[in-house]
């Protein structure tokens, strides 16, 4: 199961205390635990002895204790048997996971895989919050929703574009062998007049959504900004977020959304302390609206073939190839893996 070879966020940091926790990832059950010294361990949630769920056990010192016969397991997979002190059992390599704690979350990947940890912050940003949402669809369908903006006039109240001006929205697509980048730009949605005055937003400001999707694991980094149409400079706080799409089961997925605050000069005057908590609340509402929308889909198989697609849907088709090739490893790379990467190429989206 190649999906387990990539780093995934699976718990919020504060959820992992003294009690081991069971998590599901790509249909696989994993136990995650925190040792008394602060270390992290993760295994398949099944004792190698007699298949008891290890998450039913407890932690003593730096070892996870199975609730069935008391076998004790260290983070590196070495075991102890109270009833047979001389024995030296060891967990199977394929049942062991690496675990780290970053950005307020616990992350895991299968032990021994060479996947690099995602880099999320971006220059000029600091971590500011973390949200988690569950969707009743395969993660591919959740990704589909998050990498097109045509639905935003009907679903969202803050992000996106006004319906009557959607034909004016431009989209530029840039592909590499590993990523999909799309920049949408167009007339902004109207805001309460008091907010526009407070933030100094010009009436003709352009709303820009610059996002890049990666596939080890599957996640998308978004940069949202309102820009002056004359100077192309941001006129208020840029918003950066990274959304990770975890497969849970055949028709369920989890989204972990990491929010990042701008270190732009105007944030030093204290406005950020007021606006960022409000922005986090607004983002949580927006994401809940997406989850409610996805729940109403009639076909939850995650198959695009046979659907009639529009000009904003091309990234969805390209993403399927990246998921199969990079995330699931189903299509072999050309060459021996040491050849130079092909240069990025820019593709125009079809006219409406």
Automatic annotation (TrEMBL):
Organism whose genome encodes this protein: Sorangium cellulosum
Protein keywords: 2Fe-2S, Iron, Iron-sulfur, Metal-binding, Oxidoreductase
Presence of keyword Glycoprotein: no
Pfam families from the UniProt entry: Rieske, VanA_C
Residue ranges annotated for the Rieske domain, each copy included: 7-108
The protein's name in its UniProt record: JerP
Gene3D superfamilies: Naphthalene 1,2-dioxygenase Alpha Subunit, Chain A, domain 1, Rieske [2Fe-2S] iron-sulphur domain
Molecular functions (GO terms): 2 iron, 2 sulfur cluster binding; metal ion binding; oxidoreductase activity
């Amino acid at each position: 199961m190649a999906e387990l070879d990539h780093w995934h966020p699976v718990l919020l940091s504060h959820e992992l205390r003294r009690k081991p926790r069971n998590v599901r990832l790509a249909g696989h059950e994993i136990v995650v635990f925190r040792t008394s010294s602060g270390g992290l361990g993760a295994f398949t949630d099944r004792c190698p002895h007699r298949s008891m769920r290890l998450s039913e056990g407890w932690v003593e010192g730096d070892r996870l204790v199975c609730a069935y016969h008391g076998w004790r397991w260290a983070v590196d997979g070495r075991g102890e048997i109270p009833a047979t002190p001389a024995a030296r059992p060891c967990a199977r390599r394929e049942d062991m996971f690496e675990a780290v704690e970053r950005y307020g979350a616990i992350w895991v990947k299968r032990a021994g895989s060479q996947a690099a940890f995602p880099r999320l912050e971006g220059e000029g940003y600091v971590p500011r919050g973390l949200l988690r949402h569950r969707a009743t669809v395969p993660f591919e369908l959740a990704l589909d929703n998050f990498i097109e903006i045509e639905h935003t006039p009907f679903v969202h109240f803050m992000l996106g574009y006004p319906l009557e001006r959607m034909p004016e929205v431009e989209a530029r697509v840039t592909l590499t062998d590993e990523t999909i980048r799309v920049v949408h730009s167009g007339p902004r949605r109207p805001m309460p007049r008091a907010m526009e005055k407070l933030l100094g937003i010009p009436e003709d400001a352009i709303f820009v959504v610059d996002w890049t999707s990666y596939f080890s694991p599957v996640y998308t980094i978004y940069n949202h900004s309102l820009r002056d149409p004359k100077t192309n400079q941001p006129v208020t706080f840029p918003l950066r977020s990274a959304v990770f799409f975890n497969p849970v089961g055949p028709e369920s997925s989890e989204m972990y959304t990491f929010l990042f605050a701008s270190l732009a000069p105007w944030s030093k005057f204290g406005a950020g302390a007021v606006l960022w908590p409000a922005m986090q609340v607004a983002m949580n509402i927006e994401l809940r609206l997406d989850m409610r929308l996805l729940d109403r889909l009639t076909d939850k198989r995650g198959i695009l073939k046979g659907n009639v697609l529009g000009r904003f849907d091309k990234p969805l088709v390209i993403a399927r190839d990246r998921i199969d090739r990079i995330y699931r490893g189903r299509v072999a790379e050309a060459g021996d893996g040491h050849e130079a990467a092909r240069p990025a190429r820019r593709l125009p989206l079809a006219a409406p």
